[in-house]
């Protein structure tokens, strides 16, 4: 009996990405937020690998996406000329709910199937889904392999890329790295490969994804690249198939980008972040920007009345410096800047191999306090605050000239690196 013929299911096709390997994921056209940052939709990529003896499903989908998954699995079996849908092995590279909310629904259709993951992921799955408490999950570690019959899957633990339970699965014979969250992007496009679109579109999405989800694991990522080289895996990677966004038929651009982001390779660029109440801090920000520009350094400006912290960190990632300004309110920084400060601290840019320089500025009224607080928070978040400047009420020409000079000095300091 074909279990996926029972009931009403949607029609959706799989995509063959290699001999006996199919993308069977889900397109989430309508979502506009993930982990609190804005996205233009996303995908939950899953992959079927047909061996001569066993069939494996790598990763799963989010809530409400199982009808797409089921339809694509059925289509892949039909394309392989197999009448019966039978999955022998489930592989979970990561336990977060966007990859596991439909896992039990899928697994219970195949009670004899084996489930493979790492020890940390196993404990996370059982803590999130109590149905799995009495279900055996086979644990694997780096160096372990699984033979599907003519197709060998090798496992590599990848903690903090981007959770402690993350791992990679490598189809050795074809050099396909199923990387889960690493190397992904939040995009929902009608074609599956990076190469179907302008490379800059995908790399820009990958940069925002890295800045918001992976930057905390930058030091771990550098070590992981070394490990993959020592294991002889990175030299064999011909394709990277992540769990979100586009598949990399040519993995070189994203591997290069990840190495640069993890190593702190940045542009001659300063991200200027500010908020204002009565336009005084805004005037200071614009003057500082002019000083930065005068040194032929790129300046990206964010006004936090309207802009989102998730976009700010995308530019912070490849900036050598930042400038942060907010007026003083009740002896503290204007509260609207707080989301950005929490975001920077949460992502912890000090885990990269270099420290970004920072300038703090503010307009106060009868008392100060914003500069001291902003400086302390930026230093805790891993920034090197090399300058601060505060004025009282509305800046005059002398103050604006001083702001210009401070911006110019910050720009010169990053060019000297």
Automatic annotation (TrEMBL):
<dbReference type="GO" id="GO:0010181">
    <property type="term" value="F:FMN binding"/>
</dbReference>
<protein>
    <submittedName>
        <fullName>Flavodoxin/metallo-beta-lactamase domain-containing protein</fullName>
    </submittedName>
</protein>
<dbReference type="GO" id="GO:0009055">
    <property type="term" value="F:electron transfer activity"/>
</dbReference>
<feature type="domain" description="Flavodoxin-like">
    <location>
        <begin position="270"/>
        <end position="411"/>
    </location>
</feature>
<dbReference type="InterPro" id="IPR008254">
    <property type="entry name" value="Flavodoxin/NO_synth"/>
</dbReference>
<dbReference type="GO" id="GO:0046872">
    <property type="term" value="F:metal ion binding"/>
</dbReference>
<dbReference type="InterPro" id="IPR045761">
    <property type="entry name" value="ODP_dom"/>
</dbReference>
<dbReference type="Pfam" id="PF00258">
    <property type="entry name" value="Flavodoxin_1"/>
</dbReference>
<dbReference type="InterPro" id="IPR016440">
    <property type="entry name" value="Rubredoxin-O_OxRdtase"/>
</dbReference>
<dbReference type="Pfam" id="PF19583">
    <property type="entry name" value="ODP"/>
</dbReference>
<dbReference type="InterPro" id="IPR036866">
    <property type="entry name" value="RibonucZ/Hydroxyglut_hydro"/>
</dbReference>
<dbReference type="InterPro" id="IPR001279">
    <property type="entry name" value="Metallo-B-lactamas"/>
</dbReference>
<dbReference type="GO" id="GO:0016491">
    <property type="term" value="F:oxidoreductase activity"/>
</dbReference>
<dbReference type="InterPro" id="IPR029039">
    <property type="entry name" value="Flavoprotein-like_sf"/>
</dbReference>
